[in-house]
User: Which sequence fits this backbone?
């Protein structure tokens, strides 16, 4: 059926009761669909932390369930439809590739509220949400630019969607701002979670001269390889310090707890409306893990200041002038990239080697 652990997760029965006068829900079943395992120690792990935060916040008013390792495509549609048809009043679909499946199922279940992570298609019963991950990449770029000796940074990409490309570009801009000689090599692994592929990509990049490894994938394998090879690395989605304490410079940490609690509360009290949320460091949806103490104090101080400047609006990671690989001005001097430009980004900035896959 492609439902994996759904059977166990759905054994808890909770009726969805809507009060006639206020639209408030007395009890609520909340479902989550995950692209990786909850033990990936990255993207899915952090979403599941948000699920647990819901349980802690609402107690017996809410029952949660999840389905992990759901592939993007027909399998996702079956899982989402099963959740919607078994009394779940709120469903979080937590990967970009679930977008069309979420929209399709939402049309069939207009009374169910859907929340889709990182997508852009909304409806009366579909909200979208994401974090401005690129802000964290900017901080990482400053650190990496100061720590590299080879001036070659390795970057492991999952899929060439705007979210991932945007992160590569934000990182590269910050990197070259402090170290104009540094360049970025990208290896695409065509998966969100595959420790074997991620580890092999890290090895290949190190063999090509990279002494700092970045990733937009979900396992700690790249960090572990960096530790074994005596290189630096930046963790993804959660604090990965304990997987390679010596190699770990910092991690870009996703924090969904407050958002998940707020959206669940909105369903419970009958105030839920379709919204689009795109928050970052200022809102706390994104945080940086502690910086490695081997990073010079002055560099750590600059990183902390960069976080403060992004939060205050003094610094935008995509401040012009910004040129692409062909020296075309994409963001003029005195301007910043618009959200529309960021959300549709399909080009590399100068400093990234190779061509972007189409």
Assistant:
């Amino acid at each position: 059926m492609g439902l994996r652990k759904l059977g166990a997760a759905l054994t808890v029965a909770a009726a969805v009761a809507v009060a006639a006068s206020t639209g408030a829900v007395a009890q609520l079943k909340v479902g989550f669909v995950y692209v990786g395992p909850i033990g990936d120690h990255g993207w899915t792990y952090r979403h599941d932390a948000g699920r647990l935060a819901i349980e802690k916040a609402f107690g017996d008013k809410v029952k949660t369930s999840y389905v992990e390792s759901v592939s993007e495509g027909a399998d996702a549609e079956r899982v989402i439809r099963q959740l919607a048809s078994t009394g779940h009043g709120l469903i979080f679909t937590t990967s970009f590739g679930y977008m069309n499946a979420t929209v399709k199922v939402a049309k069939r279940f207009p009374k169910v509220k859907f929340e889709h992570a990182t997508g852009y298609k909304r409806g009366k019963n579909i909200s979208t949400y994401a974090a401005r991950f690129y802000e964290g990449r900017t901080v990482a770029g400053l650190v990496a630019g100061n720590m590299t000796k080879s001036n070659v940074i390795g970057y492991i990409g999952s899929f060439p969607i705007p979210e991932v490309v945007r992160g590569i570009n934000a990182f590269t801009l910050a990197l070259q701002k402090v170290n104009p000689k540094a360049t970025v090599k990208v290896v695409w692994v065509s998966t969100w979670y595959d420790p074997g592929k991620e580890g092999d990509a890290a090895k290949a990049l190190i063999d090509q001269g990279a002494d700092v490894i970045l990733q937009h994938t979900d396992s700690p394998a790249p960090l572990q390889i960096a530790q074994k090879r005596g290189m630096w690395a930046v963790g993804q989605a959660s604090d990965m310090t304990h997987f390679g304490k010596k190699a770990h410079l910092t991690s870009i940490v996703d924090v969904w707890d407050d958002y998940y609690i707020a959206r669940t509360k909105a369903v419970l009290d009958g105030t839920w409306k379709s919204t689009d949320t795109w928050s970052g460091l200022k809102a706390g949806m994104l945080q940086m893990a502690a910086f490695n103490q081997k990073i010079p104090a002055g560099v750590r101080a600059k990183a902390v200041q960069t976080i403060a400047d992004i939060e205050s609006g003094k610094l935008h990671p995509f401040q012009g002038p910004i040129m692409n690989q062909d020296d075309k001005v994409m963001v003029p001097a005195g301007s910043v990239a618009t959200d529309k430009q960021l959300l549709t980004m399909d080009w590399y900035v100068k400093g990234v080697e190779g061509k972007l896959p189409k």
